[in-house]
What does this fold into?
Amino acid sequence: MLNDVLSSTRPAIVMTGLFFALTGLAYPAAVTGIAQALFPHQANGSLVHQGHAVIGSELIAQGFGGDGYFHPRPSAAGKGYDPTASSGSNLAPTAKALVDRVAADVKANPGAPVDMLTTSASGLDPDISPQAAHWQVDRVAAARHLPAAQVSAMVDRATQLPLAGFLGEPHVNVLSLNLALDRATGKGANSAR
Amino acid sequence: MTAGMTLSGWALILVFTAITLALAKPIGLWLFALYEGRRTPLHRVLGPVERAFYRLSGIDPTREQTWRQYAVAMLLFQVATALATYAILRLQAVLPLNPRGLPGLSGDLAMNTAVSFVTNTNWQAYAGESTLSNLSQMLALVPHNFLSAATGIAVAFALFRGFARRQTQFVGNFWADLTRVTLYLLLPIAAVYALVLVAGGVPQTFASTIDATTLEGAHQTLVVGPVASQEAIKMLGTNGGGFFNVNSAHPFENPTAIVNLLEMLSIFAIGVGLTWCFGKAVGDTRQGWAILSAMMVLFLAGVAVTYWQEAAGNPLLHHAGLPGANMEGKETRFGTAASALFAVVTTAASCGAVNAMHDSFMPLGGMIPMFNIELGEIVVGGVGSGIYGFLLFALLAVFIAGLMVGRTPEYVGKKIEGREVKLAVLAIVVLPLCILGGTALAAVLPAGLAGPLNKGPHGFSEILYAFTSATGNNGSAFGGISANTPFYNGLLAIAMWVGRFFMMVPVLAIAGSLAQKKYTPETAGSFPTTGALWIGLLVGIILIVGGLTFLPALALGPIAEQVAMLAGTTF
It folds into this structure.
């Protein structure tokens, strides 16, 4: 037994060093190099630019609060929509905190679909359901002085349907929709509030 | 978004199952080549690397090891890699690629994390984006995603050899198995797969944070890094340790429904391949298909329950005026079908990655993931550990069948005698011992009771899930529990270590014992280990041995919560 231990000691140490270098340094470095060359947009976080400024990522929710913008789902990430602290609420289905929160939110937001009153898994969910978007159309249209039918048509255009009819759920990317709104009305955040 | 299961949801589940079954043979063939040590087309490129690894570490890959030598080599390697990771995590503050100046991890957290990754658990007592530098993610964690997976497959290979070989004491060479599986299976697939993930939207950069000013003028700090290279092997190796706190629910880890399908498939890919490889190794591929069939029966039953529960939604919220499915803790792009399917896949295998918060699942919806792990993660299971865990149950099943008809049991040409059955029971008993023992301790000690976020039976479920996940080397969690305390870090690390190696060593001992036996040809009196009767017996034994053991604990957690919920109680 002792002989077995002694004869395996050198391989254990050397193999650790070799495999850590191969899989912990060479592998991620090679993948990074190729990824940056082939898919720079995705590899760097699918960033959205306005001029030179980064205004966010297509894939990460931002905490829109103004009436003239579509709002994302509630977030439990940090103080809300904080990418340095991704998190769900982790509340149990029987948690009083959850049931009380939802009951209060239902009163304040009559008719809101279920995804608008439940926190997402990541706290950074960039999408809402088409129903949740349509539920917000009247508010956004009024704040933007646009016909509701026009905003509603924008929601339809922004709706992504499941691939092949079953892969994924119908959803609307909130940031893309809000950018389309800004383009349509030719104004930015401050004037849209 | 309305309540209830949909056709498209079931279409996803059935398409996923069909592709999984179609993967079994091609991946099994590749695994079989590595099992036999045959040359593959990749040897032309990676052969020199393999030979260099052997030369530098002074190994003769053709020198066969007894089960004891195999086990000693395996264990020493685990200790060496664990120490390397512990050192990197402790020294994080002074190592490069740490632009945010993150401090080193505390001793108990670094120890827990090292054990967690060595054991293929990837329990995360830390939040990746706020705790670990890019170097720590890459160099301290990613190697284990490869090596713990390769170790699991190596031990499975040794057990296959035990069944396949006759009258020898040798079960293979650990170093050769480890190196071949890593170089010719895991590394090439992970590299290609990582690039596919990047194309799908997963970041891959050495940058750490990006400052953004949102449309409404707020400041947002985006966290990026070498995510895709970690994500690929985390799924393929059934590791499950995410780059980010919320794991594959994070849009950067799992941006679209297509990526989500790929991630689920890659959790099962090698596990199903190993069932085919086992059949081939023992000279009868029907044996592998029989095992896979039993696995799929248990898998689809679990999916059905969880999907049904999540799609039906929460009656307490319905009563509060919010109809619809249970979307608390789920992402819009996945909905209930892809979330329920992912949860069952990740716990059927020993992956533990999550794309939804299991803590917020319905009581019975969340019970299935827990139950899957408690069965021993043998429904496809972790890479390597799934098939050897399943074979332990197969040994029990032929033993019980043998008792019923009064014959010495045989399985795939080997007589199963007292020694093998004792070792199998020893390995299986580890699960209830650590899960129920650890939960019992935590449920009475103040340090344990300080953990749960939720109150009532769900709080107990959080503790039970933690010890279930750690012992089963799964790594998923009812994430509300505050487990980064010396108490939980210590106790869960013990559970992870025992759950992994007190299973692996008996498995290797069984391999050694079987290898010495003669071949016993099948006769008219042998119990057939293919066909519906055998599959039914396997499923029955797994549910009775695995299930009944945990029923009392589950009654105190999810079942009590279900009853309370139906009575309108909140906590």
Q: What stands out?
A: The beta strands of chain B are 65-66, 170-172, 209-213, 219-223, 410-411, 414-415. The radius of gyration of chain B is 23 Å.
